[in-house]
Specification:
mainly alpha; 9 helices; globular
Length: 168
């Protein structure tokens, strides 16, 4: 993708539309589904951006890079460096920028949780906590994405599921 606008459009097509469909399945409690749609769009973008950051190594090995070319150029990182797993200071800065951008989408969609019907909240909460937890793990050591697939432990996922089921 040349620009973030291009990447955002891709994220909308592959993730936000799922979030929008989910709103119609789950229903909303506060306001209308149409009013919740921008929140669902942003949550889908947050999830997809998290996926892109988590899968950086695997995608680079396949000759793919979903990060915008404008961002790579801005930070002086090349796709060849990504494929070679070069965790340069420039790469770390690029990742911090991408993490902050992704966090903005989680924040801008935070009101979504209270809008969906209470019986649907555990599913949304669990999904959000898993994806956001991945992003938080990446933030601790951004260079890890070049060496391994970042994931949550089974215990962390079980804890998230337990918490989601208890909170409505």
């Amino acid at each position: 993708f040349a620009t973030f606008a291009d990447l955002r459009a891709y994220c909308y097509r592959v993730a936000s539309v799922v979030g929008l469909a989910s709103l119609y399945v789950w229903g909303v409690e506060q306001g209308t589904v149409a009013e919740a749609e921008p929140l669902g769009i942003d949550r889908g973008i947050a999830f997809q951006l998290t996926n892109i950051l988590r899968d950086l190594k695997e995608d680079a090995a396949r000759g793919r890079c979903y990060l915008p070319q404008e961002d790579l150029a801005r930070f002086g990182v090349t796709t060849a460096q990504l494929a070679a797993a070069e965790a340069t200071p420039a790469f770390i800065e690029l990742m911090r920028f991408q993490i902050a951008r992704t966090e903005q989408f989680y924040q801008s969609s935070a009101a979504l949780d209270a809008r969906v019907r209470p019986d649907s909240r555990p599913t949304l909460r669990a999904m959000t906590d898993i994806y956001h937890g991945l992003l938080q793990q990446i933030a601790v050591r951004p260079d890890r994405v070049l060496r391994q697939r970042v994931s949550l432990s089974t215990w962390a996922k079980l804890r998230i599921g337990w918490k989601a089921m208890r909170a409505k």
